[in-house]
Design a protein that fits this description.
The protein is of the alpha+beta class. About 35% of the residues lie in helices and about 20% in strands. A five-stranded antiparallel sheet has the order 2-1-11-10-9, sandwiched between helices. Strands 3-4 form a two-stranded antiparallel ribbon. A two-stranded antiparallel sheet has the order 5-6.
């Protein structure tokens, strides 16, 4: 677990914050920002057989269909659809391997040295470099990049703050409706963005940003319980945000040089 001051990147609290662990669908915040930075929202992305075969949770795309990149991003972030992630990754990276290379390059650029990205959707995976994983501190740093530093931060925030969204495939033959599953938006005032995740290896994961009185905090949680403990992440996030709001204030300090 990590509580971070988003303005400075300073870690205010951590518990095993440097321990490398699988992070499930919290991966998708990086997928989203990379697609926003490398593709036009109105571009058309075609579904491959691999994308169509992704397990639940999925949109249910079919091979050969085409979708607007913008629509798939809402599918990705609101409903956490695994097939949408693969369609987007193949469209931007040319292949899943190509997109994974982009993910790992971006994390290195923002100072994450203990993360290894293999899949765009966060499904458990392993390669020669190790397992698909990050640390709570580095997941918080990735969220900080998404909401504060990326040239596409406004688009990222607009997508992740949307409550519901409807769209159709390019062929116009199928329609879909997405609902935002970031339930924490209704639990605390000031939630700016967030993403949940779960796999059997990762457990319940969550990353969230919250604004209060001019301060911006980020909480990142990995391995925060397993079934039937899916509510632990909400409790822990609230505890950490409450701690940050109660104990940290922005202070302007003026230093005056004494005459010699």
């Amino acid at each position: 677990a990590v509580l971070m001051d988003a303005d400075s990147g300073r870690v205010l609290f951590e518990k095993n914050g440097a321990e490398q662990r699988p992070m499930a669908s919290t991966t998708k915040i990086l997928t989203c920002i990379l697609v926003l930075e490398n593709a036009g929202l109105e571009e058309s992305a075609q579904v491959s057989a691999n994308a169509a075969s992704q397990p639940k949770v999925h949109l249910g795309v079919s091979e050969g269909e085409r979708y607007c990149v913008k629509d798939l991003l809402y599918s990705l972030m609101l409903e956490s659809h695994n097939d949408a992630a693969v369609v987007l990754a193949e469209h931007v990276g040319g292949s899943l391997e190509g997109f994974a290379g982009m993910m790992n390059q971006k994390t290195r650029e923002i100072g994450c040295e203990h993360s290894s990205f293999i899949t765009p959707n966060g499904l458990d995976a392993e390669d020669a470099q190790g397992m698909h994983s990050t640390t709570a501190e580095e997941l918080a740093r990735i969220m900080r990049y998404c909401i504060m530093l990326s040239p596409k931060k406004e688009e990222f925030l607009e997508i992740t703050q949307t409550r519901s969204y409807s769209f159709s495939n390019k062929e116009g033959s199928r329609s879909f409706s997405c609902q935002n599953h970031n339930a924490f938006m209704d639990m605390m005032e000031g939630v700016v963005s967030g993403k949940t995740g779960f796999t059997s290896a990762a457990g319940y994961c969550y990353v969230c940003a919250l604004e209060s009185e001019g301060r911006l905090f980020i909480v990142a949680l990995l391995a925060c319980g397993w079934p039937n403990n899916r509510t632990y992440k909400w409790r822990d996030a609230r505890t950490l945000f409450d701690y940050g709001m109660a104990n940290y204030r922005n202070q302007t300090i003026r230093c005056e040089e004494k005459p010699r």
